[in-house]
Automatic annotation (TrEMBL):
SUPFAM superfamilies: P-loop containing nucleoside triphosphate hydrolases. Residues 87-355 form the Bacterial type II secretion system protein E domain. It comes from the Bacteria. CDD domains: VirB11-like_ATPase. Belongs to the GSP E family. This is CpaF family protein. It holds the Pfam family T2SSE. GO terms for molecular function: ATP hydrolysis activity.
């Protein structure tokens, strides 16, 4: 067991010395330390502080920490300075899928095998938990994000790519949910290997991306929409310029220059304490069209940006990708219509359906199911792919891949743009 009160105290000491060194460097006209240099310097400071602590304990006639205890303290201090404190071991565990925190001492962890277990507290008090989230909010993303009584909601991307959502003051205790990005650099071959998609679906999606088809990925929360979006994006040739638009940076396509050397990532900016400075998703989508994109990728559609995005898809930005929450591939059209009604344009349903028909080529539905009859294994898989065929008062579509015997998508109906897909290597006997 690690003494978290010591970690907190030493974190403050090391942080103060680190800040003092930054001020000295600035006063002497020296260049600022890089992130890696700062981490190395912090490690030296941690060793220094722990050595002083050990000497102090000996001087008081007490037993100093053992080598193992010192290593645990050092790791805890470093995580508190540069990571996410006591959450770091959970984020370092490759089997952890989701972390739900209902107050500092009510921590529930979901694992890749479907288990959900209660975990040790991640802070000594709710105030300390809030302080940890505030520190993360100050340094994650492109701009500092407030988390306080006036701004009780927060969404951000952690350094490892995981998505954090937090609320306070609208719940009895602060609540935090972290959804792990277990597959960062992911390809369709990886998803074929883990059963998310079958070989036919993989070949189809590869050809659809190459043919610059506009694809909307749908599914429930935590179904794997973003992971599939990353895999599809990694099918895009490296010579294309990608613009991503997100509420909180999550896709991270710019982190792999060998795959995508030309990427600009846009992040929604929230208003400041005076209510000024907000830049909405819809504005960012409009701005992205002026940045010479080969393709525009909208991380997640949740509101009025849908109209701007659909317009972008019909104005020459073929090959766009996005995700949306829905319960089926067919329900996507109603969900989009609802968002469009709420947008500033107040598009009527028939106009929205015409816009959908001209913008979206395929809807890919990802399903999440806990198969309790086979030991509680959590499955994520593509169960349906729907092709948009036109509009006649409503969106006309056909389910070209439908659920097979095990629920996974299998070829079901002819694809109207088969010739285009065939030009990019997709063939399927019989269609």
């Amino acid at each position: 067991m690690i003494d978290h009160s010591l970690v907190k105290r030493f974190r403050q000491e090391v942080g103060d010395r680190l800040a003092h060194q930054r001020r000295l460097d600035q006063a002497n006209g020296l260049p600022a330390m890089t992130g890696e240099d700062e981490r190395q310097f912090a490690r030296a400071l941690i060793s220094q502080v722990l050595e002083e602590h050990a000497r102090g304990e000996i001087g008081l006639g007490r037993t100093p920490p053992t080598v193992e205890e010192e290593e645990a303290l050092a790791a805890g201090i470093h995580a508190a300075l540069f990571g996410v404190g006591r959450l770091q071991p959970l984020l370092d565990d490759a089997q952890v899928e989701n972390i739900d925190i209902n107050g500092c001492d009510r921590v529930f962890v979901s694992y890749a095998d479907g288990q959900e277990l209660m975990h040790d507290p991640v802070a000594d008090s709710d105030d300390e938990l809030i302080e940890l989230i505030q520190i993360l909010a100050a340094y994650s993303g492109l701009s500092s994000r407030p988390f306080d009584t006036a701004n009780p909601q927060l969404d951000l991307r952690l350094p490892d790519g995981s998505r954090l959502s937090a609320v306070m003051d609208v719940t009895v205790r602060p609540a935090v949910s972290i959804r792990r990005a277990r597959l960062g650099k992911v390809f369709l071959s990886d998803l074929t290997g883990n059963g998310t998609i079958g070989p036919d679906v993989a070949r189809f999606l590869t050809a659809a991306v190459a043919a610059r088809k506009n694809i909307m990925i749908a599914g429930s929360t935590n179904a794997g929409k973003t992971t599939l979006l990353r895999a599809l994006a990694n099918e895009i040739p490296p010579g294309e310029r990608l613009i991503t638009v997100e509420r909180a940076l999550e896709l991270g396509l710019d982190q792999f220059p060998e795959l995508h050397p030309n990427v600009v990532a846009f992040e929604q900016r929230l208003p400041n304490s005076e209510g000024q400075g907000e830049i909405s998703m819809a504005e960012l989508v409009r701005r992205s069209l002026r940045m010479n994109p080969s393709r525009v990728i909208v991380g997640e559609v949740l509101g009025d940006e849908i109209v701007t995005m659909l317009n972008a898809m019909t104005q020459g930005n073929d090959g766009s990708l996005s995700t949306i929450h829905a319960n089926s591939s067919m329900e996507v059209f109603n969900r989009i219509s609802t968002y469009a009604l709420q947008a500033g344009e107040r598009l009527p349903i028939d106009a929205t359906h015409m816009l959908i028909a001209g913008a979206i080529d395929f809807v890919v539905f990802v399903e999440k199911r806990n198969d309790y009859h086979v030991g509680g294994t959590l499955r994520r898989y593509v169960s349906s792919i729907r092709e948009v065929n036109g509009c006649d008062g409503r969106v006309l579509s056909s389910e070209v891949f439908a659920p097979g015997p095990d629920g996974a998508a299998v070829p079901h109906a002819p694809i109207s743009c088969m010739e285009e897909l065939a030009a990019h290597g997709y063939t399927l006997g019989g269609w």
